[in-house]
Inverse folding.
């Protein structure tokens, strides 16, 4: 054995190599776990429910136009699936290292915490993407069945891209809270409440007080569904709602719609800020 071979064998892998190793084994763990199977079953059930409903009930809102079909099928369902995927694959990605004590044995090895964080984030992104691709395939298959081989409208292609911006923001958010807590149950619960209910409540309150909710992730993610509406919704719409029956006093609320650049910026800022702060928390938290 010559000197060059000895140096090559003793050389510590680079940070990028560590990221690849962490990503590979975490991704394999996801694919072999019950969580991936459960998430896949949920996705198939939602897709099957939509397929059966449209086939049996033939709702006009779905079948009146190609764009209307994708707006009703895709707009809301894919957002729920994205949130659930983020919670399933990112909710305990970091907190599990503390709760299960796996990080205690891994951190002393010559590997940076940033490599662990990035590797786990990428694996969660790929696992969630696999779930979303399944739903996308079913969506397009149904669209072709009802509207022929003309293909999906270009707005659906843009909405498809926006979903992955949203997924990145959701995973940044879930990883932030996963780094904040050492309990998997608490980190999952907090992210689930905020993503499923908290942001929606903030948006509703902002509408009543007529304040544009530019600080809410859901507001930015609204472009996923808005792009499928023709014409694109106006920036704000004032709605009068009767508080007591038809004759009661009218309460005014405002529905805000982000423009496409605004939505992308909001989702991008959520991803950048939460990812950075999540990594800082992970770097500073001690294993004991």
């Amino acid at each position: 054995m010559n000197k060059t071979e000895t140096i090559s064998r003793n050389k510590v892998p680079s940070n990028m190599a560590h990221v690849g190793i962490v990503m590979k084994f975490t991704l394999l763990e996801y694919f072999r776990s019950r969580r991936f199977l459960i998430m896949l079953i949920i996705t198939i059930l939602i897709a099957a429910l939509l397929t059966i409903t449209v086939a049996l009930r033939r709702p006009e809102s779905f079948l009146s136009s190609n764009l209307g079909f994708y707006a009703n099928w895709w707009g809301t369902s894919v957002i729920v699936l994205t949130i659930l995927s983020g919670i399933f694959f990112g909710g305990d990605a970091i907190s599990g290292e503390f709760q299960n004590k796996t990080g205690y044995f891994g951190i002393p090895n010559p590997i940076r915490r940033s490599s662990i964080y990035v590797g786990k984030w990428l694996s969660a992104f790929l696992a969630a993407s696999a779930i979303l691709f399944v739903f996308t395939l079913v969506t397009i298959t149904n669209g072709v069945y009802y509207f022929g081989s003309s293909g999906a409208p270009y707005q659906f292609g843009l909405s498809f891209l926006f979903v992955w911006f949203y997924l990145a923001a959701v995973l940044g958010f879930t990883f932030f809270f996963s780094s904040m807590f050492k309990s998997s149950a608490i980190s999952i619960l907090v992210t689930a409440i905020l993503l499923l209910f908290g942001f929606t409540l903030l948006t509703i309150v902002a509408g009543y007080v007529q304040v544009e909710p530019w600080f809410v992730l859901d507001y930015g993610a609204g472009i996923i569904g808005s792009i499928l509406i023709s014409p694109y919704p106006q920036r704000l719409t004032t709605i009068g709602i009767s508080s007591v029956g038809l004759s009661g006093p009218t309460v005014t609320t405002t529905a805000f719609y982000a423009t496409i650049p605004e939505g992308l910026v909001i989702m991008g800022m959520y991803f950048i800020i939460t990812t950075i702060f999540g990594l800082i928390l992970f770097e500073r938290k001690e294993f004991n």
In short: The chain has one domain: 15-284. The CA atoms of residues 226 and 232 lie 6 Å apart.
